[in-house]
Design goal:
Blueprint: E1 10-11, H1 15-53, H2 61-81, H3 83-89, E2 91-92, H4 97-130
């Protein structure tokens, strides 16, 4: 498999791209910290509610939807956080393991968020209108 000539490794990042990657990395880190913290908090709350109640009640469907979206956001935040590697190398190396991991996290994060939105919302929307 050959890459397009414009798709090769970029060494010596231009200043504009370097500053842009700093911003993307910063907000990726911020998103990762916030989403992970909320994910851990919701996990703790769900487990503690289950243990306190003593019975196996189903999880609130809206809480479950938010839980899945947080997981998808964590995956995407990890992809943007991997830009730190490009900043450290002052290059975007095509075919590197970081490049592969970044692509995988973006793809699975997009898939997870779209699956959650398109697959679960239609089933949960009637509960909004019927109150059940």
């Amino acid at each position: 498999m050959t890459l397009d000539s414009g798709s090769g490794t970029l060494e010596g990042l231009p200043q504009e791209l370097y500053r842009g990657l700093i911003a993307v990395s910063f907000f990726g880190l911020l998103s990762f910290i916030c989403s992970s913290t909320l994910f851990i908090f919701l996990t703790w709350k769900i487990v503690s509610w289950r243990l306190k109640s003593g019975r196996q009640m189903p999880i609130n469907q809206f809480l479950f939807l938010i839980y899945n979206l947080l997981f998808a956001d964590i995956q995407q935040a990890l992809a943007f956080l991997l830009n730190i590697s490009h900043l450290r190398q002052n290059a975007i190396v095509v075919g590197d393991t970081t490049c592969w991991a970044q692509g995988w996290f973006v793809s699975t994060g997009d898939l997870a968020s779209s699956r959650t939105s398109n697959g679960m919302i239609p089933f949960h929307s009637p509960a909004l209108f019927t109150g059940s």
